[in-house]
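Supplementary Note 3. Input sequence used for the single-chain structure prediction.
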Amino acid sequence: MIVNKHRGEVKAVLDGKPFILCLTLGALAELEVAFDVDDLGALTERFSSGKLSANDLNRIIGAGLRGAGHLVEDSDLKSMQIDGGASGFANLASELLTLTFAATPELANHVIGVS
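The predicted structure, written as discrete structure tokens, is reproduced below.
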């Protein structure tokens, strides 16, 4: 499975199966609705709070899966497992946000409060 980081694609293994995730424009529009914000600037501010819940991570990762074409609902994702547990999911969301919004991993880690 080959990913194109220039398109914002990220590879992850969930429940032992490989997936590609991507926060496409449609996925970002989905997140605007989910986070009840009006634009990408407000979405970025929301992520910059550093106070994202497990449900927030679920929404980001779910949107990334759907953006890459996987027919996965957020409720399906809640029972999936990743190496590293909760921190594995946080790292996955961080990588997605890095490729979508930030020039460096440090900036994206600040966005979701991962160190």
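Residues 17 and 82 are 10 Å apart (CA to CA). The beta strands are 9-14, 17-22.
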